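Dear support,

I submitted the protein below through the web form. The confirmation email said the job was done, but the results page showed an empty box. After a refresh the structure appeared. I'm attaching both so you can tell me whether what I see now is the final result or a partial one.
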Amino acid sequence: MGVDSKEAQRIISGCEIMLRHLVIKNFALIESLEVTFEAGLNVLTGETGAGKSIILQAIHLLIGERAESDMIRSGSTFAQVEGLFDLTRFHKKHLSDPIAAYLKGEELLIKREINQQGKNKCLVNGELVALTELKKIGNHLIDLHGQHEHQSLLRPESHLEFLDRYGKLDKELELYQEQYGQWRELLEQIFQLEQAEKQYREKKEFYEFQYQEIEKAQLSESEETDLLQQISLLTHAEKIHQSAHQIGQVLGEDEAALLARIGGIKKEIDYLAKMDGRCQELEKLCENGYYAFVEIERFIRDYRERIEFDPQKLETLQGRLDFVQRLKKKYQKTIPELLAYLEQLRGILQSVEGGSQNLENLKNQSALIEKRVKLDAEEISKKRQRTAKEVIPKMGKIFNRLGMEEAIFKITFDKKALDGSGVDGIEFYISTNAGEPPKPLVKVASGGELSRIMLSLKSVFADVEQVPLMVFDEIDAGIGGRVAHAVGEAIKTLSQTHQIICITHLQQIAARADGHFAVTKEKKNDRVVTLIERLSEEQTIQELARMIGGKESKLSLEHALELKQGGGHR
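What the results page shows now:
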């Protein structure tokens, strides 16, 4: 079906991200199905049980929802869902981080496969991703309605964010959060200094005692080794002296001293070398050996004279070694570790001495920033309350149009501890029955009623809702007549800024579609399969006639044509 210039302009200025193409294989009753969606409003119609919801279940898989192996078509080993998102008209600077990380062009291709063992394979633009990552991406692409999953406005923590975006408080919040961050950093610094000061006060005497004890010990890194060596020499001084004396006797003090005998040999070799040149090399060897023994004898003589026999010094050294070893055992550290700990203690004692003044300065800075932060938080809170007053009556008007005249919408404000979002705890409350007090939105659970509440919220927040694709599963449950027209009109309005995929049984909604798809099931090779078909203009009129009268007739066809030409109004 053609698109006129006015409609083309609406599409271009409307939804900027859209699910262009969907492929489903071996999923439940679907053997193989492909569908190309339009920008704007896409409706899926068909008999009950045809498999419309199966298509939405496949979209659930596409955005990271839980999968079970029994979803796989009987006789198949795997099921596969593939979705191509068109980002041609979307400003890349607005893309969320999870999407931007995988974007390589103007398309985002998401593919998910599950097998009989329950294992998942998730691909985003060809890159393998974890299921948790796929879910993050999906949260920024599709908002599913009709189930409690993926209903962004049903998450209480999101209400504050929606209200802030509606009130256009981005700049105020950015400045506030910058100040708040500075304040939190100061508080952390103060906490650390106070902890250090507290620890110091509690252990001041202990630290000072340890410092003085280790410093007074006057340790050196090699001291223990040196002490052990000196003690060993003094302990064995007598034996050492005996060995040195024996060497001295053999070399030069006995009647048959070795040096004298080697001297005699040297004299004879000198003679041989003088008489026979062949002995000159022998002469050199003998000379070197002789003088080597001369040096040994001189060293031993001096060494023997320096040997100490000093029991008092031995006792002193042994006492010092005992002290060092006790110190090591006490602190459970080696000497190098004790020396390093001494420096650490020195740093602690010096830093805390100057910390009190620094702490006082930080506290003064913190007090000034805290005052500004609290004032800014209160100002933001006032703007939020003004914004809430704008939103509430708008919700009431939409409720009236959707046949919920008794509904009451309320935005509750509870003061909370100051944090990065301010001082407001905000939650949406709703009452749908006269005389009933409003309750948290998250606790409203009836299907059709919940869908209309969500549609009302979406209509009000359409300008600030950042999820580009909305999927409504039988939002028309339990409504008809005037309300059906109002619901259809509200969905059509939403489709100006979002791509909509909607399962409906109401002709008032289907007649407004930019793309109308019929879902059917038929037997193929003795098995039931679900099929989907993009309807032509003529087929659309026929399907609307079926929805109006249950079967085609001249009257239902006339009514269908009138309804389609009237854009859902008849």
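Response: this is the final, complete result; the empty box was a page-load delay. Residues 429 and 558 are 44 Å apart (CA to CA).
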